[in-house]
Amino acid sequence: MYDAIVVGARCAGSPTAMLLARAGHRVLLVDRAGFPSDTLSTHYIHQPGVARLLRWGLLDRVVATGCPPARRMTFDVGPFALTGAPTPADGADAAYAPRRYLLDQILLESASAAGAEVRERFSVGELLIEDGRVTGIRGREAGGATVTERAAIVIGADGMRSRVARAVGAPTYHERPGRTCAYYTYWSGVPLDGAELYPRDGRMVIAGPTNDGRTIVTVFWPRAEFHLVRADIERSFLEAVELAPSLAERLRAGRRAERFYGTGDLPFFFRRPFGPGWALVGDAGYHKDPLTAQGIGDAFRDAELLAGAIDEGVRGHRPLDDALADYERRRNEAALPLYDFTHELAGLEPPAPDMQALFGALRHDPGQTSRFFGVIAGTVPMAEFFARDDVAAGVA
Ligand SMILES: Cc1cc2nc3c(=O)[nH]c(=O)nc-3n(C[C@H](O)[C@H](O)[C@H](O)COP(=O)(O)OP(=O)(O)OC[C@H]3O[C@@H](n4cnc5c(N)ncnc54)[C@H](O)[C@@H]3O)c2cc1C
After folding, report:
1. Is the preceding peptide bond at 36 cis, omega within 30 degrees of 0?
2. Going residue by residue through the chain (396 aa), what tens digit of pLDDT does each one get?
3. How far is the C-alpha of 46 from the C-alpha of 86, rounded, in Å?
4. CA of 62 relative to ligand 1 center, distance in Å
5. Is there a contact between 11 and 304 (Cβ–Cβ < 8 Å)?
6. Is 112 within 8 Å of 118 (Cβ atoms)?
7. Given the CA of residue 11, which atom of ligand 1 is nearest to it?
């Protein structure tokens, strides 16, 4: 009998298991994948996520993979580009984009080092549910026999198609269809000073530095164009990149080092993240388009919120249900502004006149440009930034 079983061992599951184990709880962490392994995801982590890695004592290991810091951000709106450094967060002034097979391995090892029992290549097939309460899991290691494990709480950190969420019928809300499709790949020989974003009419092109001296480049198109894009990914990709001439020129001088990866399945939804004997964290609990790169940092934040709530409940400091309701409230409060902003940006439409006026004003104001980048990074509250009269009037 465990205090908690965590299903899924990547950005949400491993930190949740690590934090619970560090707090002295008996934790089983399972994933059907073997590690180290890659997953379909680019990997830009804004400053708040980096601040959590620092707080957990894991940033040094990420830096030791050779992943370069990204301190500057460039937001190229076409006629001109805004450049600056986002407002820092809790000791973290840089973003990082470590490859997922490196990051997820570090997270998994940190959960194991904290005392969580880890089972890789273990697939959860069903939940045990007794009198309406989840009491455990049934699953098996690759090639092994089916086993049953019990816990006070089963945590679904099993991604947006969460089997745990499906098994308990977790209700969804704020649900909206996906608006984009995306493909990404890696280049070598392309120098980059931080992250570069090129919003264009019907496209978004994003580039950033990652491990092995490579540059990751991602292109977003409207979801309706997915079948056209997929018919000739390379051509669609290179045509979109040509809309960002300064980047296109550097890519032509470099070399594409990997194949294209992509998806057209990028929905928006929240799920109720708890119920009797179960909880959800990371993409299992809420999902959005990745074009603002919030998923990993959000998973880290929610791992902290959820582990804290379970710890309080299990220790009897407050009723577990109260603590979990607080987890849902705090998650939603933190996530909703950027969720809406991301949904708007995922429309890939030209900026509205007030935003155009804002960009024009930011061009001459490095301080406010940093704060605008802080909004995207999640270090400056959106309401605070847009509440300023000068910003609202586009004269920052
Ligand atoms: C194209 C794309 C680009 C992205 N770019 C970024 C970015 O730049 N920055 C960013 O912050 N976010 C980005 N994201 C989002 C980010 O990938 C996710 O938010 C993040 O991976 C969520 O982590 P997670 O641990 O919740 O889920 P996942 O990473 O999906 O992990 C879920 C794990 O659960 C395991 N699992 C599932 N079912 C079972 C089962 N039945 N039994 C056992 N194990 C199971 C899976 O094997 C998997 O390892 C991107 C996403 C996509 C698709």
Report:
1. yes
2. 999 999 999 999 999 999 999 999 999 999 999 999 999 999 999 999 999 999 999 999 999 999 999 999 999 999 999 999 999 989 999 999 999 999 999 999 999 999 999 999 999 999 999 999 999 999 999 989 999 999 999 999 999 999 999 999 999 999 999 999 999 999 999 989 899 999 999 999 999 999 999 999 999 999 999 999 999 999 999 999 999 999 999 999 999 999 999 999 999 999 999 999 999 999 999 999 999 999 999 999 999 999 999 999 999 999 999 999 999 999 999 999 999 999 999 999 998 898 999 999 999 999 999 999 999 999 999 999 988 655 655 544
3. 9
4. 18
5. no
6. yes
7. 25
Q: What residues does 151 pair with on adjacent strands?
A: 2
Closest C-alpha residue for ligand 1 atom 50: 41
Point out the ligand 1 atom lying closest to the alpha carbon of residue 265: 53
Q: Residue 323's closest CA among 332, 310, 333?
A: 310
Looking from the CA of residue 263, the nearest atom of ligand 1 is 1
Tell me, in angstroms, the distance from the centre of ligand 1 to residue 225's CA: 24
Question: How close is the Cα of 13 to the center of ligand 1, in Å?
Answer: 10
State which ligand 1 atom lies nearest to the alpha carbon of 40: 53
The CA dihedral of 270, 276, 278, 279, to the nearest 10 degrees, is 40
CA 15 from chain centre, in angstroms, equals: 13
- Structure-block tokens of residue 6: 């965590």
Residues in contact with ligand 1 (CB, 6 Å cut-off) = 7-13, 30-33, 39-45, 123-124, 157-159, 163, 182, 263, 282-284, 290, 293-297, 299
CA-based nearest residue to 70, from 83, 57, 56 = 83
Reading the block at residue 155, the tokens are 């945590």
CA 12 to chain CA centroid, Å, is 9
Return the axis-axis angle of helices 47-55 and 295-314, rounded to nearest 10°: 40
Tell me the pairing of strands 117-119 and 27-30.
parallel
**Tokens (6 digits) for 30:** 């399972």
